[in-house]
Amino acid sequence: MTVAQAPTAAGPRSERADLFLSTAAIVALAVAQPLLDLLGRTPQFFTARAASTFEVVMVGLVLGIGLPLLVATAPAGAHALNPFAGRAVHGAVMTLGGGLLVAEALQHTPAARWPGWLLLAVGGVAGVALVVGYHRAAPIRGLLRYGAAATAVVAGLFLVVAPTSRLVWGTSGVAMAAGPVADPAPVVMVIFDEFPVATLIDGSGQIRGDQFPGFARLAADGSWFRNAVGVHE
Which of 20, 69, 139, 177 has its Cα between 20 and 30 A from that of 31? Predict the structure, then answer.
């Protein structure tokens, strides 16, 4: 009796593990990766908020690893209570995640010009196909099972490769010493955010001194960066 019961007990545990790992994989690829890719390409998001190294690292770990694993507990936990409920939750997450993944991929192809409803429809069909393939094809289950490693890969790319990683590791291990200043003077930087510059300049790109003499004197007495914007590095 003991030998006969072992496979029965191992079956649900194995299925539960597959649900957990495959969910973590799809959430990492469809949700965490796009978010960290966006944040990884915009280090000014963190510098503008004076984020510490610890905070940047935590963003990478929480979004890249914590979020996928947290979502993956939903189908696994539901399966522990009722196998059918676990499969239903898993199917819903996989459909949504697969749809998001395909829709995101289509944004980098000529299909990006399609209407939004068509992209959503294609993504939905792809998500359903992923769920069907998961239950009918062992290779797909195996691929998603090992795809859970994407959680660590996504976090690693953000913390090591992305431009934001400079905030973690620094651009140089040696601090640069300030050079001597022969004629020190105070520096004042004035930024006009969302200011309609086009109303100040003429056809040649110069400030209309007759209409805006104050701005003309300010530009003549300093350096005017006419092409800079509020988020300019």
Answer: 139
Q: Report yes or no: 36 and 46 within 8 Å, Cβ to Cβ.
A: no
Of residues 231 and 95, more confidence is placed in: 95
Tokens of 180: 């001597």
Q: Where are the beta strands (DSSP E) in the chain?
A: none
**Full DSSP string of 135-188:** HH-HHHHHHHHHGGGHHHHHHHIIIIISGGGHHHH-S-SSPPPPPP-SS-----
Pairwise CA distance, residues 68 & 26, whole Å: 8
Closest CA to 72 of 117, 12, 20, 33: 20
d(CA 125, CA 110): 19
Which segments of 21-96 are extended strands (E)?
none
| C-alpha to C-alpha distances, 18 to 21, 87, 90, 148, nearest whole angstrom | 5, 11, 10, 10
One-letter amino acid for residue 76 of the chain: A
In the chain, helix, strand, coil percent, each to 5? 70, 0, 30
Residue 124 tokens read as 């939905």
pLDDT by residue (tens digit) across 23-70? Answer: 999 999 999 999 999 999 988 888 888 888 999 999 999 999 999 999
Q: Distance between CA 28 and CA 139 in Å, rounded?
A: 19
Of the candidates 217, 65, 219, 68, the residue with the CA atom closest to the CA atom of residue 155: 65
Residues 164-175 have pLDDT tens digits of: 998 888 754 444
Other CB atoms within 10 Å distance of the CB of residue 191: 10
CA 129 to CA 98: how far, in whole Å? 9
